[in-house]
């Protein structure tokens, strides 16, 4: 994949003592940034400690980052944080090292280095790391793919939307599985370009229309609605705020897959969509994150 990305990025690196603490820090940092603002990774070292790296699309407020880490991990970890600047090509390559294919139902998300290992009875989705959110290795992405696989076992949606598409992994999965068109939108122009390139890489460039849009303001939403299936892997606050306009773009009995939710925030999102006439069908918990399958009442 050839992507237009920022030539250099600011990085914060630090180590933490155990897996539980590492996950807590990663969850807090992930919830604190919008899609495309930061790429966060945690890897276990041979000595049992965890290395955490955060790559920022724009130079961050370093004091604010330290405050977040202090809240989650204490003073000792904060004192170990190092900020530096690295070339994007260096960290993209490094972020792929050690990433294994992610299996979710019929889907396998993988990098180019694992292309040959996808079984013939699975749908491979090739995604390379970039500054756009979503290599497929996050619990929210896997939860969405599992719910998408579940939906497609009984339905073949004709009109589909991937809202907050990031690298386009969910739109590509839906297009590959159904061979039908998918509208993919993101507020980040870079993510839009990456999603478009990934769709071409995966042979569905003719099926995935990737647009840069805020909310539902772009004319493509009205032109393609009403949607039979919406996938929205974003964050809790934006999901609550867009409950009303999202519902207005749904067909009767439409399915909606929502994710990007830490467990404590799930109840509020469910309530917001129930108030718009959607019912909860399934709730998956993957790596401390919630993914919801809801349906609009017919």
Overview of this protein structure:
With 298 residues, this protein is α/β, with parallel strands linked by helices. It folds into two domains: 8-96, ACT domain (Alpha-Beta Plaits, 2-Layer Sandwich), CATH 3.30.70; 102-296, Vaccinia Virus protein VP39 (Rossmann fold), CATH 3.40.50.150. Helices cover 35% and strands 31% of the residues. The chain contains eleven helices and 14 strands. The protein has helices at residues 19-32, 62-73, 75-79, 88-96, 139-152, 169-178, 189-201, 219-224, 236-241, 243-248, 266-274; strands spanning 8-16, 38-44, 50-56, 82-87, 102-104, 107-110, 123-126, 160-163, 182-186, 208-212, 227-233, 250-262, 278-286, 289-296. A seven-stranded mixed β-sheet has the order 10-9-8-11-12-14-13, with helices on both faces. A four-stranded antiparallel β-sheet has the order 2-3-1-4. Strand 8, helix 6 (169-178) and strand 9 form a beta-alpha-beta unit. The termini are far apart. Residues 1-6 have low confidence and may be disordered.
């Amino acid at each position: 994949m050839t992507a237009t990305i920022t030539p250099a990025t600011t990085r914060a690196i630090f180590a933490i003592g155990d897996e539980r603490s590492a996950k807590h820090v990663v969850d807090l940092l992930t919830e604190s940034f919008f899609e495309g603002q930061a790429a966060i990774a945690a890897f276990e070292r041979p000595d049992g400690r965890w290395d955490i790296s955060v790559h920022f699309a724009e130079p961050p407020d370093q004091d604010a980052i330290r405050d977040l880490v202090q809240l989650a991990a204490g003073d000792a970890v904060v004192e170990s944080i190092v900020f530096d600047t690295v070339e994007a090509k260096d960290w993209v390559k490094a972020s792929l090292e050690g990433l294994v294919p992610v299996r979710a139902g019929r889907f396998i998300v993988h990098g180019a280095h694992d292309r040959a290992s996808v079984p013939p009875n699975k749908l491979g989705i090739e995604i390379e790391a970039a500054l756009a959110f979503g290599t497929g290795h996050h619990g929210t992405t896997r939860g969405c793919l599992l719910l998408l696989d579940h939906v497609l076992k009984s339905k073949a949606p004709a009109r589909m939307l991937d809202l907050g598409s990031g690298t386009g992994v969910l739109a590509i999965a839906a297009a590959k599985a159904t061979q039908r068109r998918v509208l993919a939108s993101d507020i980040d122009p870079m993510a839009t370009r990456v999603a478009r390139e990934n769709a071409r890489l995966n042979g569905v460039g003719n099926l995935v229309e990737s647009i840069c849009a805020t909310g539902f303001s772009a004319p493509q939403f009205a032109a393609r609605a009403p949607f039979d299936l919406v996938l929205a892997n974003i964050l809790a606050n934006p999901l609550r705020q867009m409950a009303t306009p999202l519902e207005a773009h749904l067909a009767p009995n439409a399915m909606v897959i929502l994710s990007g939710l830490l467990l404590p925030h799930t109840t509020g999102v469910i309530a917001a969509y129930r108030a718009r006439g959607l019912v909860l069908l399934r709730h998956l918990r993957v790596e401390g994150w919630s993914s919801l399958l809801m349906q609009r009442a017919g």
